[in-house]
Every structure is written in C-alpha cells, then in structure tokens.
Design a protein that fits this description.
This protein is of the alpha/beta class and 238 residues long. The chain contains 9 helices and 11 strands. It has a single domain, classed as Metallo-dependent phosphatases (Purple Acid Phosphatase, chain A, domain 2, 4-Layer Sandwich), CATH 3.60.21. The strands form 2 sheets. It has a 6-stranded mixed beta sheet with strand order 4-3-2-1-10-11, covered by helices on one side. Strands 5-6-7-9-8 form a 5-stranded mixed beta sheet, with no helix packed on it. Strand 3, helix 4 and strand 4 form a beta-alpha-beta unit.
C-alpha cells in the first residue's frame, strides 16, 4: 500500500546541518519504494541559481537523488526562498516540479497544494516583490550575475524584507481568508495543504479543511496520508 507524505519550509542551510540530518533520517525511516514525498516550498533557505545551488547543496541533491533511485516519487514546489530552482536541479535530483498551484487526488479527495505565499495578499509589498522576481526578464538578469553579485543582492533583499517585516502586524503576515476561499473555489476543492506561514495547524470549518505545515525549528509537522486510509498530522522532533 502506498502513502503520501507532505513537508515544507525546511529552509535547509549548510550552516544548520541538523536540519539536513533530520531530512536524511525522515527519508530513511518514513519513506519506502512507491511512496510519494511532497515538499511544498522553501526546501532551501536560499537558492540563487542551479549552478550555485547544486554545489552548495550537493548533499541534499544526493539525498533526493537516492530517494528517486529507490523508487520514491519526490515532488517539489517552489517557495519564496527557492523560486529559482531550475531544470538542472530537477534533472540532478529526479524530483518532479510541482506547479505553483497543483491539484492531486488521494482516496477520491481532491487536494490543492500551494506554497502559501500567494494567500498572504494583505502583504502588499511582498506581492509586488514576488511579481517582479517571478518575471522571466528579472530572472534572466539575475542569473547572469556573478555568484558574488547574486549573494550580495540576495542579502540586500533579505535585509529590506526583514526591515519591512518588523513593522508589519502578525495578521498581515498570515493568509487572507478571502484569498484562501478564492483559491479553493477556483479549483473547486474543499481540501488545501500549504506551508509558508510557519503556523502549523489543521483548520476545519464548514466542510473545508486547510492544513498548514510547519517549519523545521526544533521539530516539524508533517502530513501522512496512506492510500485507503485517512490522513494523520504528525510531529517529529529534530
Ligand atoms: Mn515561504
């Protein structure tokens, strides 16, 4: 019997090897041939292009490749930190790229998968920034920069983002209820799984289920969904 597992927001960083170790342990103990692993964005703390990323994250790339090679299907959605994941990354890992809005079905249940940043519509500055950096013109320009220049730019963006985030209320940083309803209605689904907000929770009301996966600080929450069984929202220490 197969099963699907969902994680997000690992923010893997060579400076925090314990998170990569936790992913390695997760893969070794929770995954088997025929299982599906869904990573719903921000697998990496920052991805500045495949040329740099494949080098800096060679251990993670190898780990994902091993899962693929032993018959685990790995699906990866781009987050706001690793939206520059490109075809070389997917080729190297054997993982499949999930569209920003992806529909899957488990046990006749239609499920919408999102990273979650698109739901934070109250954060107007961020949505403007996202529109810029998701344009192919911006990405081509950025990827043409030297590694040192890309690191510099990323640090500047990060500092600007931290300055702006510090002055924003908690509500602005969370999902907008209307955006959630609109996204689900546009796909005709009653089940949504996303990450990004780092507020792990199962929200259930009016026949609608929204599961928010958490980040990997000290522990992480993952969704386990076996075929022919109901889902389980579980917590794992790091
Ligand atoms: Mn995110």
């Amino acid at each position: 019997m197969s099963r699907s597992l969902f994680i997000s927001d690992l923010h893997l960083d060579p400076r925090r090897p314990q998170h990569t170790a936790a992913l390695r342990d997760f893969c070794a103990t929770k995954l088997q041939q025929g299982y599906k692993l869904y990573i719903l964005g921000d697998l990496f703390e920052v991805w500045l292009g495949d040329d740099m990323g494949l080098m800096h994250y060679a251990d993670v790339v190898e780990l994902l490749r091993q899962q693929h090679d032993r018959g685990v299907e790995v699906f990866i959605q781009k987050g706001n930190r690793d939206f520059l994941l490109g075809k070389d990354f997917f080729q190297a890992t054997g993982a499949q790229c999930l569209a920003d809005e992806s529909l899957i079905e488990i046990n006749q249940q239609q499920i919408l998968l999102l990273h979650g940043d698109s739901l934070c519509t109250d954060d107007v500055d961020y949505q403007a920034f996202k529109q810029l950096v998701r344009s192919s013109a911006w990405q081509a320009d950025f990827l043409a920069l030297s590694a040192a220049e890309r690191i510099n730019r990323a640090q500047q963006y990060r500092q600007q983002s931290q300055t702006m985030t510090a002055s924003k209320s908690d509500d602005i940083m969370d999902v907008n209820a209307d955006a959630v309803a609109a996204a689900m209605a546009s796909h005709g689904v009653k089940f949504l799984i996303h990450g990004h907000t780092h507020r792990p929770m199962v929200h259930q009301a009016d026949g609608i289920t929204r599961i928010v996966l958490g980040d990997w600080q000290g522990h992480f929450d993952y969704l386990l969904w076996p075929d022919n069984d109901t889902w389980h929202f579980l917590r794992q220490p790091i």
